[in-house]
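Hi there. Long-time user, first ticket. I'm pasting a complex I've been working with (about 806 residues overall). I'd like to know whether the download I got is complete or cut off, because the file seemed smaller than I expected. Thanks.
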Amino acid sequence: MENVKKTHPVMQNSQRECLLPAAVLFVASLVFLVFGAFYRDGITPPVFSEDYTSYLYGIVMTYPQLYYGAAALAVGVYCGFRLFWIFSDQNQLYMHLSMGVSRKVFFRDRLLGTLAPLCLAVGIPFLINEVLNIQAFGFHGEYLRVWFGFLLSTLSTVYYGVFIGALACILTQRKILSPIVAILFGVSIPALNTVFKLAYVGDLESINWGGTWENRWFGSPLGNVLWYWNKDQWGYENSVVYPTMKFGMDKTHLLLQPIVWLILLGLLFWAFQLVFRKKLHIEGGEAIRYPLFTGTIMALGAAWLTSALYQEFLLIPKQAMGSGIDVENYFGHSISELLSMNTVRYIWMFAVCIFIAALVFIPKRRYVYMVLPVALLIASLTVSLFYTSTDAFGKNKEIPSGVITIASVDFSLTKTADGKKETIVLSGKDFEDDSDIETLKKIHKNAKNGGDASVSGEFKITYYTWEGVRYTDSFTSVDAEDFAKLKAYAEKGGRVFNE
Amino acid sequence: MIEICEVTKKYGDFTAIDKISFKVENSSIVGLAGYNGAGKTTLLRVVAGVFRAQEGKVLLDGADAYDNDKERKDLFYLADDMWYAMSATGKSAAKYYSTYYPNFDMDVFLNICKIFGIDEKKRIRALSKGMTKQISIAIAFASKPKYLLIDETFDGLDPQKKVLLKKIMAEYIQETKASVIITSHDLAEISSICDYVILLNGKRVQLSCPIGEVSKNFRRVTASFKEDVTKNLFEGINYRSLKMDGKQAVIVVYGTIENELKKLEEKGGTIKKAEELTLEEVFMEQLEENEEEVANLFSKNKKKGTA
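Hi, the file is complete. Here it is re-exported in full:
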């Protein structure tokens, strides 16, 4: 009880100190919510077409979510700066230490007291948002994932800002200069990303702007490495680095990302060390543990953000719009893909954060707290495995109605009828004609319904949706009638083998 | 009782205080004096359990002060820059601190505010430095600690408030038998309130004695010699400062004064004058060595004198 009495004021005070940032977050989130409601309720951005008169106009009209992201980022930067300023308050630490509050208790309560109002400030508006979502689209099995995804994506954005703000605060430690540096630093990352992308893509119009904030250079190293090892199973389309590959970055670039990220992590840790050692005069093992903890939490948050932002925050809502909010294709990917890719990753990272927090900060009954992340991890993996194995949603997957281009069709099919074997192979042919595309869509649909047993092989079709996101599907069989149509396409430009 | 035993504190490679030892008995006030950067604040922070000493330890009634929650409930560290929550008023700050100090007496807090003439309902941020200090003092005494540490005790207070503070402190000691350590640059105030004085210089204790004995430990001696004096002549004598002028020397000796005077006479000196020094004069001796340098600071034409 004594412990509770002692730690309570620290937490309460931290909460009080965070009220202003939390209030800013809360208001900002509500604005985002209203904005998002308009965005979803029919203000469809114009197709990224050639008739826009200025490039800026195109960006402004096509990607309002950029503002959403930018606003969330700005709020995050502000909060991050302010929070870290509070967090590194030497006087407060010293006073509490002199009053018999241990460092462990102090930092734990500061952290919890800081996070609680911020989470509430962001969580409540987004809970409202998702309730509205249910009303708009009906309840579906993916509700929890939807809620979780949007909540986390926004938190991730904020987190990213917090990360930037805190880093800037540490590096400068000057009250006036820091926010400016933080904002410049925040802006520089997407700016750098644009430069990188320009270097690879060559022209602004072909850039997939949806990835601006996600930034493939500074983020998602874990996802990239995992993908690289599993690319044969996952395929390009399931990878968060797919646009990187699309734009021609090779293995070297891909593997360079984790190195860049590691360097950034090192810098972050070094900066935290400086604060803890030099400013707060914390020494010994604690000078390693506290910055490592804080740095890890922030770094994981940033990594978490980078993968989440692109998938959830920019790409998915637009895909939903592009597909006419077809609930079954709400995410552009099947649920099993998403579960195996995104949610597990989020939960995993979340679990790691809690695990480390429990390990470092919870003095008593820490094992109880450590069970929670492990349970979360196991649960998420189980759910993922269940969906992956049953492919519960995959069978009904349709071509998104917003498709504007079919990039390529690759197939190698063999039809066996009346003792005769007929094989067609076609690769990389572009189908630009509308009637061809419609035919392919029908073939696609028939194939999804099971096809014909007499036809076997591999059929792969790739589209680009209106916002330039690639969408790929593959089947092992098509109908015999479709086989004849495909053969005709193959004869137009592909190679045909008859046996 | 507070016991400081051979305490050494380093910041990285820099040694802030080196093997400091002294005791603060119950019902007594120890004044810590020293130049800026002498290690006074560092020592208080070690005593308060904010820093862990690399060597030595601090005992509060026999128990180690570091990471000792129980004993530190009875300790109040009134820092030079006290922490208050944003937008806290004097009263809300007192309430906050009262959650940590089981003996906190809100009436004492309010009475001290009244004595100082401070409005406890005002936001601390809106108060002047001196008024903030008075709020801090009120909180410190209202916490009723057994061990009270006050950094830069009289800093920011006007003469009237200094007198009031000394009265409050004396009353508190009499009532609670607390052990108090104060630091200050105001040596006259230290002399007037403390029982014991510790002079820190060069990270170490240079003087540690009851306040009444300071004068006994230092003498400013004027001695004349048959020949011109050089610095070598004074080897083996405990002196704090030395000024030579031809056949005459003014030397501040410390330690066992009789012995030092005897040594001077053995070296051929005739003692003309041996004056007792106040604490302030002892403290200022070091500064006097730099007087000529200061005098020539802005004049290119003047030649630097020799000490």
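A couple of notes from our side: DSSP finds 16 helices and five strands in chain A. Residues 201 and 352 of chain A are 36 Å apart (CA to CA).
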